[in-house]
Amino acid sequence: MSDKKVITRFAPSPTGFMHVGSVRTALFAWLWAKKNNGTFILRIEDTDKEREVEGSIDHIKNSLQWLGLDWDQGPYLQSERLDVYKKYAQILVDKGYAYPDPYTEDEVGEFRNKAELAKKPFLYREHRPKEFSVWDGAKPLRFKVPTVKSFKWNDLVYGDLSAGPEALDDFILIKSNGYPTYNFAHIVDDIEMKVTHVMRGEEFISSTPKFLSVYEALDIAPPFYATLPVILGPDGKKKLSKRDGVKDLLQYKDEGYLPDAFINFLALLGWNPGDDREIFSRADLIKAFNISRIQKSDAQMNARKLDWMNKEHLKLLPPEEIKNKIFECLPENMRNPKLVPIILERISKWGDVKEMVEAGELDFFIQAPKFSKEKLLYKDFLPEAIAKNLQLAIESLEQIDVNNFTEEEVKRNLMQITNTLSSRGELLHPVRFALSGKNKSPDPFIIASILGKNETLSRLQKAI
RNA sequence: GGCCCUAUCGUCUAACAGUCAGGACAUCGGCUUUUCAAGCCGGUAAUCCGGGUGCGAUUCCCGGUAGGGUCACCA
């Protein structure tokens, strides 16, 4: 590899929201730039004004910012660089490698239909005019393939690739409205911006010979290509697309995923460090990242593993930050520090806190539960036996000093009683239920310690 | 249809031709002295098929099969 400064870019079109597929391309380009102390450029490919979606440029920027994929240059807008593309187009015209298309769109469509009927691949160059007129901008400008041949090239991920001559055609460089096509604009920009490594999706492999042919016509060396495998939808079949219910990236933000965890997850989808490490900090990721270990086969999005990974990152956060974040999701009357460990244990992302609140899972911490007494029953123990056990619990807990009503003290006292019983459940279940009103809840000791002596005794009393 | 790419547990993946095919998520079971959660321990689970070259193929070659991509005045 040359000793040139590494320059990578992320070049989305502003046609909608970002999803995990597009953002992973950005991530890999960003990682490679960071690893090499290089430059990461953001470029907006807005050459199709018809398809442009209002607000998507901001959306792209917000998404990258959320993940901390900061760009060193840009965003450049292709729509503001029309003169640059015209300049390069003129160079090709002057060299005899570009010419105005004499046909109308319908006529070209006819050619295409005929080829299809004949079950032959459609190649415009088979209809190339003998004589070229002068390009006045009214007609689309087409590339004239210098030499029709097979291409072989190297891809940093896929290795040696090749394609036959039918991959080559006289494609449109400048549309009749003056805008360049993607095929041409991105080449010009990559040249002008001195991009050294092009990270891109698999769908561009088949058009690479066209790109290479333009570089040849321009007599300029192409950049390194690193083609990334596709991220498949949850069904494992189709490529992720905005149509089939794929999530907007910012939705993950709203659901409370950590940017570092998300990046970690995304990086491991199609790349691995070569050892068993899975949890990476941002810095470690940059250090470990390497193009040569990018996967060739497509990968499927796995939401469960993302949740697991997010939790792993959650646990690494400073306790103070965890507390603050959880408090943010909690109504004011629930902002009790003692609740934090209980909640942390049960969530994988911040949004889960809100869900717990909405599901009423934490209500018993702020108000006494209402329930019918038969819920207190445990296995086949009689109501009288249960009531007696609750009475024992009350008497025992009354002994604890109100200022020392800790989880440990409560547990010691209650466990002492269970030693005299035939089973622990006949005491612990009714106590827990009396305090929480739930079949599934944290253990009675921690609940009691959070409620405090008075509230605990009051709830037990009411249950008898 | 032409051209191109890919193929290891359900999923993400590891394995200079020699490993009992390893790890992680998920799943299942046990422990954690009531439930839930968390944690710990353990189990089930894979080299697409067929040839070839090797003493030896997950690994290299060929052919099939399956999946995907691409053939726009979209990117």
From TrEMBL:
<keyword id="KW-0030">Aminoacyl-tRNA synthetase</keyword>
<keyword id="KW-0067">ATP-binding</keyword>
<dbReference type="GO" id="GO:0000049">
    <property type="term" value="F:tRNA binding"/>
</dbReference>
<dbReference type="InterPro" id="IPR049940">
    <property type="entry name" value="GluQ/Sye"/>
</dbReference>
<keyword id="KW-0547">Nucleotide-binding</keyword>
<comment type="similarity">
    <text>Belongs to the class-I aminoacyl-tRNA synthetase family. Glutamate--tRNA ligase type 1 subfamily.</text>
</comment>
<comment type="subunit">
    <text>Monomer.</text>
</comment>
<dbReference type="InterPro" id="IPR045462">
    <property type="entry name" value="aa-tRNA-synth_I_cd-bd"/>
</dbReference>
<dbReference type="InterPro" id="IPR020751">
    <property type="entry name" value="aa-tRNA-synth_I_codon-bd_sub2"/>
</dbReference>
<dbReference type="GO" id="GO:0005829">
    <property type="term" value="C:cytosol"/>
</dbReference>
<feature type="short sequence motif" description="'HIGH' region">
    <location>
        <begin position="12"/>
        <end position="22"/>
    </location>
</feature>
<keyword id="KW-0963">Cytoplasm</keyword>
<comment type="function">
    <text>Catalyzes the attachment of glutamate to tRNA(Glu) in a two-step reaction: glutamate is first activated by ATP to form Glu-AMP and then transferred to the acceptor end of tRNA(Glu).</text>
</comment>
<keyword id="KW-0436">Ligase</keyword>
<feature type="domain" description="Aminoacyl-tRNA synthetase class I anticodon-binding">
    <location>
        <begin position="338"/>
        <end position="464"/>
    </location>
</feature>
<dbReference type="GO" id="GO:0004818">
    <property type="term" value="F:glutamate-tRNA ligase activity"/>
</dbReference>
<keyword id="KW-0648">Protein biosynthesis</keyword>
<feature type="short sequence motif" description="'KMSKS' region">
    <location>
        <begin position="239"/>
        <end position="243"/>
    </location>
</feature>
<dbReference type="InterPro" id="IPR000924">
    <property type="entry name" value="Glu/Gln-tRNA-synth"/>
</dbReference>
<dbReference type="GO" id="GO:0008270">
    <property type="term" value="F:zinc ion binding"/>
</dbReference>
<dbReference type="Pfam" id="PF00749">
    <property type="entry name" value="tRNA-synt_1c"/>
</dbReference>
<dbReference type="GO" id="GO:0005524">
    <property type="term" value="F:ATP binding"/>
</dbReference>
<dbReference type="InterPro" id="IPR008925">
    <property type="entry name" value="aa_tRNA-synth_I_cd-bd_sf"/>
</dbReference>
<protein>
    <recommendedName>
        <fullName>Glutamate--tRNA ligase</fullName>
        <ecNumber>6.1.1.17</ecNumber>
    </recommendedName>
</protein>
<dbReference type="InterPro" id="IPR020058">
    <property type="entry name" value="Glu/Gln-tRNA-synth_Ib_cat-dom"/>
</dbReference>
<dbReference type="Pfam" id="PF19269">
    <property type="entry name" value="Anticodon_2"/>
</dbReference>
<feature type="domain" description="Glutamyl/glutaminyl-tRNA synthetase class Ib catalytic">
    <location>
        <begin position="5"/>
        <end position="308"/>
    </location>
</feature>
<dbReference type="InterPro" id="IPR033910">
    <property type="entry name" value="GluRS_core"/>
</dbReference>
<feature type="binding site">
    <location>
        <position position="242"/>
    </location>
    <ligand>
        <name>ATP</name>
    </ligand>
</feature>
<dbReference type="InterPro" id="IPR004527">
    <property type="entry name" value="Glu-tRNA-ligase_bac/mito"/>
</dbReference>
<dbReference type="GO" id="GO:0006424">
    <property type="term" value="P:glutamyl-tRNA aminoacylation"/>
</dbReference>
<dbReference type="InterPro" id="IPR014729">
    <property type="entry name" value="Rossmann-like_a/b/a_fold"/>
</dbReference>
